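Protein modeling request. Please complete all fields; requests missing the sequence field cannot be processed.
Requester role: graduate student
Desired output: 3D structure, C-alpha cell encoding
Chains: 1
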Amino acid sequence: MKLKSQFVCQQCGAVYAKWVGQCTNCRAWNSLVEQVAESAGAGGRTAVAKGQLSGKKLDFVKISTIVPSDAKARLVTEFADLNTVLGGGILMGSVSLLAGQPGMGKSTLLMQICAEVAKSHDVLYISGEESAGQVKLRAVRLGAESDRLNFAASTSGNDIAKTIESGEFDLVIVDSIQTLAMDEISSAPGTVSQVTNCGNLIIRAAKATDTAVVIVGHVTKDGTLAGPKVLEHLVDVVLNFEGDRYGGFKTVRAVKNRFGATNEVAIFEMVDAGLREVANPSAALLAERTNTDGSVILATLEGNRPLLVEIQALATTSNYGYPKRTASGFDLNRLNLLIAVLERRTKLRLSDKDIFVNVVGGMKLNDSAADLAVCMAIASAVAGRRLDEGYVVFGEVGLGGEIRSAFRADQRIAEAKKLGFVHAIGPSSVHDKFVIPAKDLRETLIRYVK
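Delivered output (450 residues):
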C-alpha cells in the first residue's frame, strides 16, 4: 500500500496536505518539508484523549550483561591508518558516512576497501551514479575483482534497504545518498525529506541484520556535508575526505565516531594504482623545500600524528587602496587577526601590502600552534630576511603579542629531532633544551628573522 505524504513546517510544526511557499501559522518562508504521514486511527486518538497508552512495557536487561560494541567483529581494510581512524576497522552493524569534494577519490578509496574485505566477506557495492561498466573498469584498474564482490545499480531507497535487510552481505557500499529516493515521497532525490527518510530506512536495515554500511555523501561549495544535519546525527561514523584533488596529500579524518577517537587522521597520496598511505609525510613535504625569505617550517599535529609542514608567505606592494589577503590551507579570518597583531605589536607596516600565505602539500591546518610560524613567515617575507634552516617553529600568538603554549609539544619536538632539525622556537612553557623559549612576538622576530 502506498503511504501518504504530508508537509510539515520545520519552524512551528504545522502540517499541510500540499506544499505552500509560506507557512500560514508562523509566516516562515520555504520551511515546509515533505514527510511520510503517520496515520493514527480514531481508536488511537480516543485512547490518548482518555489517558490510555497504547504502548507496551520495554524489555530491559542488566547493564553488566551487555556485550560492548567494540567486542564485535570488525572488517579490517588494507590501510592501517584508516583502521585507526575507524577505531580498529569497520564495525559490523555500523553505518559510516564518507563525505568529500567531487574527484577527491572517494569511489577509489571505497573500491580498495571492498577489494580487501571481499577476500573473506561478502560485499555489495551499490551505485546510483555510475553504470556497471564504469565500476568494472575501476575494479580492474585497482585489482579489486573478486567472486565475493557484487555490484548493483539502483536509486531506490526502498530496494536498497530491502537488500540490506536480507542479510546476505557483510559490507554494503551506497554511492551516494543524494541520488536515492523513496517511493512514498514525491520530492526529487537529494532533498531534505528524501535524504532523511532514505537514511533512516538504510540505518534500520543495517542495525536489524548487523550489516556494516558505508554511505557516500556530497558536500556543498564551502566543504560542509550537503543535506540535513540530522543525517550526521543518525549515522555512527562521519568521515571527511579532504585535500587537493589535483595533487598533494589527501586526508581522512573522523568528525564523529561512536566506536573510536576523533583525533586520528589517515594521510594518502594518489598514484596510478589508487590511493596509497604516506609512511613519512613530513619528509615528503619538505623534500623540495628551498630556504628563502617567507619560508618557515611548522611543527604541527594532524590528529595524534606529528607533522612538519612548510609555511610560505609572500608580501607585495598593493596597487589598490584595499590590500589583499589570501590564504591556502589556513583560515583567512585567523590570518587577518594575526596581521592585525603584527601591525599593532611590532614595527611592521602591512597596510599597504598584499599578503599571501600557503601551506605546502595541500594540507589544511586547524592547529592554533601554527600562529607563530605564520607570523614569522609574513615578517620574513616583508623584511626580505630568512630563518635559519635548522629551526622549526610552533606556538599560539595572543592578541597582546605573547606566545602561548601548544598542545602535545613533546610529539612535535620528537618529530623535529627525527628529521635532523637543530632547535625549535616555541613557547617558554615547554621545558626542553631543544626548544628556544619565545615569550614575545616582537622580540622573537628581531632575534631570529635575520
